[in-house]
Design a protein that fits this description.
Elements: E1 7-12, H1 18-21, E2 33-38, H2 40-48, E3 54-58, H3 59-64, E4 69-79, E5 86-90, H4 94-99, E6 101-105, H5 110-122, E7 128-132, H6 136-142, E8 145-149, H7 150-157, E9 164-167, H8 168-176, E10 180-188, H9 189-194, H10 196-215, H11 218-228, H12 232-241, E11 242-243, H13 248-263, E12 274-277, E13 280-283
Parallel strand pairs: 1-2, 1-3, 6-7, 6-8
Antiparallel strand pairs: 3-10, 4-10, 4-11, 5-8, 5-9, 12-13
């Protein structure tokens, strides 16, 4: 039994998912598994279109088609407060931003809608939005503020002198008291039904990578310095302030985000999160 073709796996091409994937690919034979690296928006689209079997993906994009997917248990990219890579940059006073225009990165789903929720429900503001490629200087030529995510946001935060930089994870925590889950790992239901053994193998590889990475962050910190720049102390703090579980606390914070998104019409339906467990679906947060 099982699929006769390779299983395709989507990997978000940002440092924030490194702990989940860093050691996993060595455990997934290339003749059986193909790993594709893309920005979140591209993975979200490919997964929706059935071009991926399993993927790390934006939490919001998961919610849009949750009935088609199952979550791999206890895997996420979350923050209990400051996230350091979901950042709103501005040279203008906040009062102008709230009444002005904000440039949104074209690479995101969760963060874009988190910003819209914060603007509407926290600030009681209704700015206009424009979606652009993630180049800060060009974005700020067209708008009063710019939302960047991932490695681009990190690099821009290092040269942000003279700007106000708002960390959306930190602001969400201050407002709601909850942490925020920005990405999840999901499998298409038909893949889980057709090849549960392959799904279990992927889950073991990702869970093992998470455990090994978090037990010794030094290799990831060195890799980040080499590939992205920055200091070991920065990356030590960065990886320690992210969380990779998806327990009750993370689920409750994400459920609130989904509720706010539905309240604002960003989501059409109530989200019922389902996870893979023992090759069956178990519903959580009913």
């Amino acid at each position: 039994m099982g699929l006769s073709r390779p299983i395709t796996i989507g990997r978000i091409d940002y440092a924030n998912v490194w702990p989940i994937f860093h050691y996993a690919e060595d455990k997934l034979p290339q003749e059986r598994f193909v790993v594709v690296k893309r920005v979140p928006s591209e993975l979200n689209k490919a997964f929706r279109e059935g071009k991926l079997d399993i993927t790390s993906m934006s939490s919001f994009a998961y919610a849009q088609n949750a009935d088609d997917y199952l979550l791999l248990p206890d895997l996420s990219v979350s923050a209990k407060g400051r996230v350091n890579s979901i950042l709103l940059f501005t040279r203008e006073p906040l009062e102008r931003v709230l009444q002005g225009r904000i440039a949104l990165t074209a690479t995101s789903a969760t963060s874009v809608n988190l910003l819209k929720i914060i603007m509407s429900l926290y600030y009681k503001a209704n700015p206009s939005y424009i979606t652009m490629e993630p180049t800060l200087d060009k974005m700020l030529e067209q708008a009063d503020a710019a939302l960047l995510i991932g490695d681009t946001a990190i690099k821009e935060s290092w040269r942000s002198e003279g700007m106000t930089v708002i960390d959306l994870g930190e602001l969400w925590k201050t407002w709601t008291g909850f942490g925020m889950t920005f990405a999840l790992v999901a499998v298409r239901k038909e893949t889980a039904a057709a090849d549960p053994e392959a799904v279990a193998q992927v889950l073991r590889a990702l869970t093992g990578s998470k455990r090994r990475s978090l037990s010794d962050l030094a290799p990831l910190m060195s890799k980040a310095c080499e590939q992205l720049g920055g200091s070991l102390s920065y990356w030590n703090r960065y990886f320690h302030e992210l969380h990779y579980d998806f327990g009750p606390s993370e689920q409750n914070g994400l459920a609130l985000y989904f509720d706010y998104a539905k309240q604002l019409g960003l989501l059409d339906t109530t989200v019922r999160m389902q996870v893979v467990e023992d090759q069956t679906a178990m519903q959580v947060n009913e």
